[in-house]
């Protein structure tokens, strides 16, 4: 899951540029602070690399990473040391 | 929200959100430092931060550790005193281009010459942000600022090379668009027992961007990315081709005797004991 | 056990610093103060301390502030030009309430001036040198023994009030060799007070006596030290007039309200004197001789020696000069403390200022006493 904190986001959209998989999109309408918040458009594309989390200057993005997210259905043969989805 | 942001526990939450402008790179670099610190498995309790004056120097005020927000340009001299006084601390210095290359240039090269075990993170946004967009010693030739309305003709400093030449044992330059490299370099810098310098070329959309036709944070981030050239590639490029480019990579990574170690050795040779720490609290010595 | 030594003033200063618990010195060579740095470079490693020769005086002042927050009693020594460079960081030490000791062995000035000659021309710089309102503590010794004693006192005052303390000595005292007595039993040392309550500790709280206990970095108190106007947590609060007023008033009042503890003057023959000579630092030596000679001539002269030019001991000086007819101020400048003394005393005040790098001759002061004493 990716969470975006509305209170902290100032709407710089660096996350849009930095995301390698183009997960984010900009909402059409501004919120009450006048910020066009980014939203998660394609969550399935997310590789949980964490770049957006670090690059967000306002500590507004949280990528909820399960530490064993690559292990599906306890099938240990799927263990992937390169930490990629494929 | 089910899970708090991973960096908030390290920050003084009562001071957030911070004063940085929309799209400013300082917040990203603060996160990158905390991520690098986690990767280096540093003890957060043992970290002390020192900074000078400027936008980037406000960062230590947001991190929940002992922090010294000192005078303009003098962060490295304060940090030298702090580190020598208590060598057990991991001293991290946050500084900007005006702070460390202009007013504090002398302290920068001397700290590098001593090879004192400090980690210096220099956020180079090519402009004086706090005072409203004047050109700095790292502003690229031809760039505009409020004090260079017709474009600056001055030659900029190459900080990472300067510090490497002055004797630092670790020196690297990246941009905010290379955030993973920044994290890795900060990790290496924190672990390096000696003077470590990480220059991060950062965006200042409010002043540098507005003066140089790069109004949005993303436009600035794109420019940083497309203008940067890896050091290995830059070696084979002509000076003309390198004009206006940002050479990124590691400029020094070596080992050398460290300053506080030398003091410790001298103390052991002359007194037969260890260097005293926190002696101000003792009534008798 | 008392120890007798025949040493130079600057060496006595270094010895005093070591006795007071100074374990960090950062400095830059400058005549006539260099011997302080040289002695401490030799002696500090022997007691587990550290000496660093910095790249300039700005860095020296910065380093000792860092050193002080690192948990060591810290000091630097300099002369006029270096003292000018340190001013910005001195202001920082005031606003961040950092205990440091700065020794200024004064020389002929302005600018490079007379590096090997004596002067007292930095007295007003010590008071007002850095920008802003602040109350410095300045000690002015007039013998090698006093330079030793005052150095220890300077560290004690710095720790007690969490403030920078200056020792404004001069080339004559710094380079003079005299006998001093070091009696360990009589030396009192004030250690730094560490706060106890980690949860509720406020490093810049508006406490009654003005001075909060101070942790060192690494103690786990997570203090934020800044040169911006800050609230009691140490967080910047620069746009609130009340915060700034309360804060700066507290910093000044912690010195002003404790003047009784800080100020010290010495005097002789003041009870029946018609003319009182006021001086501080090395001119005291000539003044003492001149006043004795005047008494032998039958003139009713007396003298006051000010140990602490700042904060100015106005109560003491006013009290001592209340019955006199005139006051003469002897100092090695064209009038600096003179104006402060003139402000405080009720009778007519005149100045015998001397620049050029020589001490007043007792005969010069004597003839001025004779002139003013109506002879």
Task: Give an overview of the whole structure.
Chain A has 86 residues and is an alpha+beta fold. Chain A is 12% helix and 14% strand. Chain A contains two helices and four strands. Chain A has helices at 14-18, 51-55, and strands spanning 2-4, 24-26, 38-40, 61-63. Chain A has a two-stranded antiparallel ribbon with strand order 1-4. A two-stranded antiparallel ribbon of chain A has the order 2-3. The longest helix of chain A is centred in the N-terminal third of the chain and has 5 residues, at 14-18. Residues 80-86 of chain A have low confidence and may be disordered. Chain B is α/β, with parallel strands linked by helices. Helix content of chain B is 35%, strand content 18%. Chain B has ten helices and ten strands. In chain B, a hairpin with a 5-residue loop joins strand 5 (127-128) and strand 6. The longest helix of chain B is centred in the N-terminal third of the chain and has 15 residues, at 25-39. Chain C has 375 residues and is an alpha/beta fold. Chain C has helices at residues 9-20, 34-43, 57-69, 80-95, 123-128, 144-161, 171-175, 241-256, 259-262, 283-296, 314-320, 337-344, 362-372; strands at residues 2-8, 22-27, 50-53, 73-78, 101-108, 114-118, 137-139, 165-170, 177-183, 224-226, 265-268, 275-279, 301-306, 326-331, 348-353. In chain C, the strands form three sheets. In chain C, strands 2, 3, 4, 5, 6, 7 and 8 form a seven-stranded mixed beta sheet that branches. In chain C, strands 11-13-12-14-15 form a five-stranded mixed beta sheet, with helices on both faces. Chain C has a two-stranded antiparallel ribbon with strand order 1-9. Chains in contact: A-B, B-C. Strand 2 (66-69) of chain B pairs parallel with strand 10 of chain C.
């Amino acid at each position: 899951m990716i969470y975006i904190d509305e209170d902290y986001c100032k709407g710089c959209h660096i996350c849009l540029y930095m995301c390698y998989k183009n997960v984010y999109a900009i909402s059409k309408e501004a919120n009450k602070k006048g910020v066009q918040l980014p939203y998660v458009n394609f969550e399935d594309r997310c590789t949980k690399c964490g770049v957006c989390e670090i690059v967000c200057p306002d500590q507004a993005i949280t990528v909820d990473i399960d530490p064993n997210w690559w292990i599906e259905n306890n099938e240990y043969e799927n263990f992937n040391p390169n930490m990629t989805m494929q | 929200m089910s899970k708090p942001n991973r960096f908030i526990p390290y920050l003084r939450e009562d001071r957030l959100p911070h004063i940085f402008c929309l799209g400013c790179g300082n917040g990203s670099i603060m996160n990158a430092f905390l991520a690098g610190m986690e990767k280096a498995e540093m003890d957060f309790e043992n970290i002390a931060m020192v900074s000078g004056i400027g936008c980037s120097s406000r960062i230590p005020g947001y991190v929940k550790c002992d922090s010294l927000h000192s005078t303009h340009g003098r962060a490295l001299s304060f940090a030298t005193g702090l580190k020598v006084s208590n060598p057990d601390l991991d001293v991290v210095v946050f500084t900007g281009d005006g702070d460390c290359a202009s007013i504090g240039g002398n302290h920068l090269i001397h700290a590098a010459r001593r090879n004192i075990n400090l980690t210096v993170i220099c956020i180079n946004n090519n402009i004086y942000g706090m005072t409203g967009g004047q050109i700095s010693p790292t502003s690229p030739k031809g760039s505009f600022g409020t004090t260079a309305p017709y474009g600056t003709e001055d030659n900029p400093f190459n900080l990472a090379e300067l510090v490497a030449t002055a004797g630092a044992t670790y020196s690297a330059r990246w941009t905010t668009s290379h955030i993973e490299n920044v994290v890795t370099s900060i990790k290496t810098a924190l672990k390096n027992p000696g003077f470590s310098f990480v220059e991060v070329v950062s965006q200042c959309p409010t002043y540098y961007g507005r003066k140089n036709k790069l109004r949005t944070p993303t436009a600035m981030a794109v420019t940083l990315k497309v203008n940067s050239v890896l050091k290995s590639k830059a070696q084979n490029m002509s000076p003309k081709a390198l004009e206006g480019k940002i050479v990124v990579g590691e400029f020094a990574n070596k080992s050398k005797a460290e300053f506080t170690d030398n003091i410790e050795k001298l103390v052991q040779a002359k007194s037969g004991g260890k260097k005293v720490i926190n002696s101000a609290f003792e009534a008798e010595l | 056990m008392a120890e007798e030594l025949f040493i130079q003033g600057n060496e006595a200063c270094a010895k005093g610093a070591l006795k007071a618990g100074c374990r960090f010195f950062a400095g830059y060579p400058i005549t006539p103060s260099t011997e302080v740095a040289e002695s401490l470079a030799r002696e500090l490693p022997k007691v587990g301390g550290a000496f660093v020769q910095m790249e300039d005086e700005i860095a020296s002042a910065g380093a000792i502030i860092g050193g002080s927050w690192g948990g060591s009693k810290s000091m630097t020594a300099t002369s006029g030009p270096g003292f000018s460079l340190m001013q910005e960081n001195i202001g920082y030490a005031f606003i961040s309430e950092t205990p440091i000791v700065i020794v200024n062995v004064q020389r002929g000035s302005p600018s490079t001036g007379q590096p090997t000659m004596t002067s007292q021309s930095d007295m007003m710089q010590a008071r007002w040198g850095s920008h802003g309102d602040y109350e410095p503590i300045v000690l002015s010794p007039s013998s090698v023994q006093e330079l030793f004693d005052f150095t220890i006192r300077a560290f004690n005052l710095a720790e007690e009030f969490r403030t920078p303390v200056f020792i404004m000595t001069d080339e004559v005292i710094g380079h003079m060799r005299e006998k001093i007595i070091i009696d360990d039993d009589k030396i009192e040392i004030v250690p730094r007070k560490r706060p106890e309550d980690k949860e509720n500790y406020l490093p810049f709280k508006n406490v009654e006596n003005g001075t909060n206990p101070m942790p060192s970095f690494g103690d786990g108190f997570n203090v934020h030290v800044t040169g911006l106007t800050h609230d009691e947590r140490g967080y910047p609060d620069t746009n609130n007039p009340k915060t700034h007023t309360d804060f700066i008033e507290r910093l000044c009042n912690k010195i002003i309200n404790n003047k009784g503890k800080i100020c010290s003057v010495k005097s002789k023959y003041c009870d029946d004197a018609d003319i009182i000579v006021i001086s501080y630092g090395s001119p005291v030596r000539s003044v003492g001789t001149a006043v004795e000679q005047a008494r032998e001539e039958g003139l009713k002269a007396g003298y006051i020696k000010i140990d602490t030019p700042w904060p100015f001991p106005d109560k003491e000086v006013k009290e001592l000069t209340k019955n006199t007819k005139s006051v003469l101020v002897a100092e090695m400048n064209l009038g600096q403390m003179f104006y402060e003394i003139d402000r405080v005393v009720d009778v007519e005040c005149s100045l015998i200022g001397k620049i050029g790098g020589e001490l007043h001759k007792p005969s010069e002061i004597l003839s001025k006493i004779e002139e003013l004493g109506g002879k």
